[in-house]
Amino acid sequence: MSAPADPTDFFDVASQFSEEQHQVQQSVARFVDQRVLPIIRDCFEQHRFPRELIGEMASLGLFGASLEGFGCAGLDAVCYGLISQELERGDSALRSFSSVQTSLCMFPIHRYGSEEQKQRYLPVMARGECIGCFGLTESQGGSDPANMRTQARRAGDGWLLSGSKMWITNGSIADVAVVWARTDEGIRGFLVDRGTPGFSATEIENKFSLRASITAALFFDDVRLPASQVLPGVVGLKGPLSCLTQARYGISWGAIGAAQACLAQLLDYTQTRELFGRPLAATQAVQIRLADMSRRITTAQLLALQLARLKEAGAMTPAQVSMAKWNNCRMALDVARDCRDLLGGAGISAEYAPIRHMLNLESVITYEGTETIHQLSVGRALTGHSAF
Ligand code: TGC
Ligand code: FAD
User: Which of 11, 158, 171, 295 sits 20 to 30 Å CA-CA off 259?
Assistant: First the structure.
């Protein structure tokens, strides 16, 4: 029987990619194989984000990859998806870092910023010399950001920002925070530089998930900001929600990479693990489970590819992004858990990737909108009733 050329791409989805898309995927895959995989287990165990990789990621053109101008690569939607997929094949922490930098920080500056803000922040962010974080979630309930308490009041020519944000990726290492706050005019976005008096960040310790990523709480104690630090181009919740659409798109692709990493390792393991006189791979029950994982990965790949086509055509809706984020995160988490189980006792060892991916995916299925929120978004699109 002929085996698929790549068992983690059963339908040869890669045959749909252009030469440029192949090259982007291969260069990020090489980076992940050579630079991420050798260290990521230690990073996870030591609760350490590998900052030493930021420069290399920047030189590969990963930051702001989907944006035009200002030193950004201007790549298409499939390329951006493949970058996310390959990074997350290494670890969700790397994809998270890239999502926050590109979709949650550079995107709003590019889309809603003044020319001066774009010139000041985007080139240095593309070069990885300025790290961003995105502050939307607050401790009283991330699913309902319209209920935020962080507020900005006009003070003279500028603003006074007060409040706090919770669960912020990169929060304690960021050079600039994109912070969403309630104002008399509606929700607005502010660019808060590290070191601005009254602004502080505290890292959240003891996470069991995304241990190779930094997560922090942000505090704003009457932070005085000049008028030049507000994003002029958007007022209202649609500002942050439009950024989430970009990041959720990337996660839909990223989750596939985590699942592929788990399945690839399990396929090897089941060939060599002999029980009851034959390889695990030669038993019906194991084959059915492997086939089912392959089926789920394949459908996620096809969903992501069609989402990319809709995005390129300017036709992608937030509800479609919700369905893809929901489906692909659920798929990846289920695959990682199943792989963990099929590894037996070895599955709880950091020596094998599935438990690390599984623990990471508990965050990935929660952040950028929980599974329930995305189900309700699809439900609203189908029925016209908002049932949040
Ligand atoms: P709703 O009435 O639906 O919308 C308010 C306004 O926003 C517009 N809108 C969008 N615009 C652009 N893109 C989108 N995706 C949009 N979705 C909605 C909408 O048209 C409306 O505009 P207008 O002009 O009429 O005012 O708002 P709602 O209050 O009913 O909320 C809906 C809901 C629950 C879906 C929303 O609140 C939500 O998505 N909640 C989940 C919050 C969330 O995902 N937070 C993520 C925080 S960031 C994060 O987790 C980063 S992790 C990063 C990493 O490490 O990778
Ligand atoms: P809640 O909103 O309190 O939800 C609790 C539970 O209630 C969930 O199961 C939810 O699905 C359910 N629920 C909510 N509403 C309903 C409803 N109407 N009906 C039924 N069930 C419902 N945020 C940022 O702004 N920036 C970041 O960079 C960022 N990074 C993160 C990194 C990590 C590692 C994590 C874990 C989170 C991060 N977040 C970030 C926050 C993330 O977006 C929130 O955790 C998420 O939106 C959920 O909010 P919450 O934790 O407050 O849970």
Answer: 171
Average pLDDT over residues 139-146: 97
Domain span at residue 262 reads 238-383
Output the pTM of the full model: 0.98
What distance in angstroms lies between residue 375's CA and the mean position of ligand 1's atoms? 14
Average pLDDT for residues 124-144, to the nearest whole number?
Answer: 98
Query: What is the C-alpha to C-alpha distance for residues 57 and 126, in angstroms, rounded to an integer?
Result: 10
40 and 138, same structural domain?
no
Q: Is a pLDDT exceeding 70 seen at residue 272?
A: yes
- Here the CATH number for the domain that contains residue 182 is 2.40.110.10
Question: Are 257 and 351 within one domain?
Answer: yes
Residue 317 to residue 258: CA distance in whole angstroms: 25
Give the number of domains in the chain.
Answer: 3
For every residue of 150-189, DSSP letters joined together read -EEEEETTEEEEEEEEEEEETTTT-SEEEEEEEETTEEEE
**What atom of ligand 1 comes closest to residue 236's alpha carbon?**
26
Residues with CB under 6 A from ligand 1: 96, 99-100, 134, 136-137, 142-146, 169, 236-238, 241-242, 244-245, 247, 318, 367-369, 373, 377, 386, 388
Residue nearest to atom 27 of ligand 2 (CA): 168
Please report whether residue 388 resides in a domain. Answer: no
Q: Each residue of 305-320: pLDDT tens digit?
A: 999 999 999 999 999 9
Q: 330 and 199: one domain?
A: no
